[in-house]
Design goal:
Keywords: Hydrolase, Magnesium, Manganese, Metal-binding, Protein phosphatase
Structural class: alpha+beta
Order of helices and strands: EHEHEEEHHEEEE
Catalytic activity: O-phospho-L-threonyl-[protein] + H2O = L-threonyl-[protein] + phosphate; O-phospho-L-seryl-[protein] + H2O = L-seryl-[protein] + phosphate
Family: Belongs to the PP2C family.
Number of strands: 9
Largest sheet: 4 strands, antiparallel
InterPro entries: PPM-type-like_dom_sf, PPM-type_phosphatase-like_dom, PPTC7
Protein name: Protein phosphatase
Length: 227
């Protein structure tokens, strides 16, 4: 049996009703084969920028891999991943201390190749820290940047390990005086197709197969808007 395309969506901001609309829109059943796809030739139905939300600021990413490198991987790789991201600045005039090039409000994300395949993650920063003179985005972006670095260099396959190490590095660096965020990290294997997940707070991920949500991570919150 040939593997079929699964779409995995992680989000820090969407409501449960919106997640379903995003995940089930224009999803086609497609056989997965290891093949290099230039960013300009990505299928239209995989362009996150076509969604009705966050249209003022959107981008599509593909893992940078040359055709020669892709051919070498064909014998040992059975799965291909396409990672995309969309975000929306909270305020066009907002100034942040984090000096990041992407303004996603208090939120952050990453996507990176790993020794096993691909890791992706999102963090929803707690905006309440701004009332105390703290940039909420600094914590979430530092955590996600650390997670990206850990995942890209480590042989760890468990997403929990990636988050543990990323937070430990944040705490020991002394660069973040205060802050907090949710965290949702997924680590996928290109050879087995297996995925490990770590979800802390009310961020979430869903798995979609044949236009149906087959799994949605449970939300963790004390009450509305309090993860």
């Amino acid at each position: 049996m040939k593997p079929q395309l699964q779409r995995i969506v992680t989000t820090s901001l969407l409501s449960k009703s919106s997640r379903h609309v995003l995940a089930t829109t224009s999803i086609k059943r497609t056989v997965i084969r290891p093949k290099y796809i230039p960013p300009s030739k990505l299928p239209a139905n995989l362009q996150i920028s076509s969604c009705s939300f966050h249209t003022s600021k959107a981008a599509t990413y593909s893992i940078p891999t040359s055709e020669e490198e892709e051919e070498k991987e064909e014998q040992k790789s059975n799965f291909e991943f396409i990672a995309s991201a969309a975000w929306h600045p909270k305020s066009p005039k907002r100034q942040t201390q984090s000096k990041k090039t992407i303004d996603a409000g208090e939120d952050a994300f990453f996507q990176t190749t790993t020794p096993q395949g691909l890791a992706i993650g999102v963090a929803d920063g707690v905006g309440g820290w701004s009332t105390m003179g703290v940039d909420p985005a600094l914590f979430s972006w530092t955590l996600m940047n650390n997670a990206s670095n850990v995942a890209s260099k480590s042989s760890k396959e468990d997403a929990h390990d990636i988050l543990d190490v990323a937070f430990d590095k944040l705490r020991k660096s002394g660069k973040v005086s205060a802050g907090s965020s949710t965290a949702c990290i997924l680590n996928l294997s290109k050879t087995t197709g297996e995925m490990t997940s770590c979800n802390l707070g009310d961020s979430a991920f869903v798995l979609v197969r044949d236009k149906k949500i087959v799994y949605e991570s449970p939300s963790q919150q004390h009450y509305f808007n309090c993860p």
